[in-house]
Description:
The structure holds two protein chains of two kinds.
Chain A: H1 2-20, H2 24-43, H3 59-77, H4 80-88, H5 91-96, H6 102-130, H7 138-156, H8 158-167, H9 170-178, H10 182-185, H11 198-206, H12 208-221, H13 226-255
Chain B: E1 9-17, E2 23-32, E3 37-41, H1 48-55, E4 63-68, E5 71-72, H2 77-83, E6 84-87, H3 99-109, H4 114-127, H5 143-153, E7 161-165, H6 173-188, E8 192-197, H7 200-206, E9 209-214, E10 217-222, H8 224-231, E11 234-240, H9 249-261, E12 269-272, E13 276-281, H10 284-297, E14 302-308, H11 312-320
Parallel strand pairs in B: 3-8, 3-9, 6-7, 7-8
Antiparallel strand pairs in B: 1-2, 1-4, 4-5, 9-10, 11-13, 11-14, 12-13
Helix pairs in contact in B: 3-4, 8-11
Amino acid sequence: MTALLFESYYLGQRTLRRFYRVPANPISVVLYPLIQLFVFSQLFKDIVQLPGFGGGTSYLAYLAPGQITFTVFFAVSWSGGNLLVDYRNGYLDKLRVTPINRYSILIGELVPLFVECVIMAGAILVLSVLLGASIATGLPGAVAVLVLGGLFGVAWAGTSFVPALLTKNEQATGTLSILFFPVAFMSTAFVPPALMPDWLRVVNDWNPITFVIEAMRALMTTGFDWPAIGKALIAIAALGAVLHGATLWAFKRLTN
Amino acid sequence: MPGVSTPVVDVDELVKVYPGGTRAVDGISFSVAAGTFLGFLGPNGAGKTTTIRILATLLRPTSGTARVAGLDVIADASAVRRKVGFAMQTVAIDQLSTGRENLELIGRLHRVPASDLRVRVDELLALMGLADVAGRLAGTYSGGMRRRLDLASALVHRPEVLFLDEPTEGLDPQSRSALWEELERINRTGTTMILTTHYMEEADRLCERLAIIDVGRIVVEGSPAELKRSVGADSVELRLIPNEGPGDGLAASQDEAARLLADLVPVAAIERTSAGVRLAVPDAERAIPGLMRRLDSGGVHIEGLSMASPSLDDVFLRHTGKRIRPEEADRPIDLGWST
Lengths: 256, 339
């Protein structure tokens, strides 16, 4: 276990360098969520007047958690490609001839993803506040939202890593991970369940992303809703177990 | 090889069949004594890379056993990794890390103690002539510098055995000979070296022992000199100054040379050429001084001399019936799913 942490720490340093030393990466990671939130908030400004919202709520505060999960989806969709670059240029083999745990390599890849997700979520929160939203739980709640966003990104990473490891092709990785996007639309990211058709409401009830969004939403609009936060963490853990199990399987398959 | 010491690499009946049926390695056995510089010479696709990847624990053999530093490459893979270094065919360095960062990361993953690591990294950077650019991103390095950085990263943990897969592939002649010197120096410190190459010159220059490998099998093994001697004699060609006087001066000189050299032990055969004679001798370099003395004292004058030895290409031709061709497609494009 200490070995895993030690190895992941140094491998994570490298993957972070790879991220921030290309200026386009940090720039787009900050700019993209800003643009997305700004456009969405303008588009749907009056949607809260619909009966299902129960009026009153600031759509900005309501929208932020959905926007965060959406940006996380984007960050994840391009994350698997990095592993392929290492695979193709032989760096993955170079790491594999060192006496390290194979899973450290994957954890190392998740470090910059976590950071990206937190930065993107942070950008959304800052802009929301600037545009007039208030966060019901204040700074501690904002930190909790960022952590939930980052953890969700790490768990969700499998939707990009598995296609990458199976297809060994960057383009296919991108196109396949997009197939997971509709899962976000089938959640309460943009509208409350009351406005959904019946079948979608059923899907939504079982959608792990909804649990993550609802916990964030409570933090934004009402307060520390511990049962909701607990459900969100369970949903993230379950997603992570399934997706990372598949990732590990695909990784072993690639490297045997 | 001296059979006294236990071999540092011991391979028995190694077979690798890839999914899809390609039999890349087809029953290879060999052993290597500590400190040896062994080369696998063969065309692309002969099974050299597959063999070396199995020894470096990157690939599982289909059958057979391989032990490195006394450890089984499958059962004790992790322990083997501590003892070996592997410089791969493609240079694998992180371009967005500096030269120093590249070496430090690999050193840490090999658990080189922090106090030792700094010294070791400085030492390697100096050795490879990279000290001045240690703080620059590796992506800005030239091809030769990348190779040297890659080689350095295989040495951070002072491996007992160093595997080199086509180490000078794609280098210009100058960088190539600089790298050869480097490899010889590393070998002199006691590191066992196992190299694959399809460059005859490289095998000849570096390796004290060669295994010629073709379609997954070792076809012949020995020192470069032994192998070359086994395919035939050296030849010495003499251009003679024709005798003065009546008749065919050249023919007279040739006859005289043949008479003088007939009883000389090293000369195995002699034939006329358009300008002199050609001699077949077992070892041209040693034979020439004696030949010169004999002809000189007999009054036959030489205008010029050239000698030729069988090359490793001749060895390869003899044992496989074909020449080592350079580039050939190595592996099919991987489209995923199928494997």
